[in-house]
Each structure stands twice: as structure tokens, then as C-alpha cells.
Amino acid sequence: MVPGIRSLISVPAGMNKMPIFSFLALTALGSSVWTTVLTLAGYHFGKNYEVIETTLAPYSKIFLLLAIAMIFGWIIKRRLASNKKGNISP
Questions:
Q1: Residues 47, 53, 58: CA angle, nearest 5 degrees
Q2: pLDDT tens per residue across span 5-58
Q3: Residue 48 belongs to some domain of the structure
Q4: Cα distance from N-terminal residue to C-terminal residue, the chain
Q5: Whole-prediction pTM value?
Q6: Using an 8 Å Cβ cutoff, are 21 and 83 in contact?
């Protein structure tokens, strides 16, 4: 995953009151798959790391921006739903 998102993924999970064991299991699964993919890619591409990094860098930024937009969209949607119910949240 994009650096930074890994540390923020627990925020929306907690805001949605995701059960801790489900979160831990899914996080472990996702992390192990991602780590395996990166390890195999590193082994396969070897010393061409700079080429791969240069190729993937723009996509990482796009995914980061999409993730931030999704979080803001979720916050806005939740506030709008709260306002419709008559609850004004800070």
C-alpha cells in the first residue's frame, strides 16, 4: 500500500466500529499478500529497482489522492445524513 495510508487505515475502521478481530485478520491477510508480492517483485526485478520505482511513483500518488478523497467523501456523507436526522454534529 501507499505509505501513509497503512497507518491511517485503522481510522475509518474504528469510525465504523469494525470488530477488532475482523480488522486484525483482514489486516494480517492484506499485509501478508502485499509483502509477498513486493518480495517476489524485488527478487524477480533485482537491481532494476530504480526503474520500477520511477514507473510506479505516479500511481502511488494517484492512489493516495483517491484514498484521501474517499475519506473526505465519507465524512461529508456522514455529516449530511446526521443533519437530515436533525442531529447537528460538530
A1: 165
A2: 666 777 778 878 888 888 888 888 888 888 888 888 888 888 777 877 787 788
A3: yes
A4: 32
A5: 0.47
A6: no
Q: At 85, list the grid cell.
A: 436526522
CA atoms within 13 A on the CB side of 81: 6
For residue 39, the model assigns a pLDDT of 86
How many structural domains does the chain have? 1
The pLDDT tens digits of the residues spanning 62-90 come to 888 898 899 999 899 988 888 877 655 55
49 near 42, Cβ under 8 Å? Answer: yes
Q: Is residue 20 part of a domain?
A: yes
At 50, the amino acid letter reads E
Give the C-alpha separation, 3 to 24, whole Å: 19
Nearest to 71 by CA among 2, 1, 23, 15: 15
Full domain range(s) for residue 33:
5-84
Residue 90 lies in a domain: no
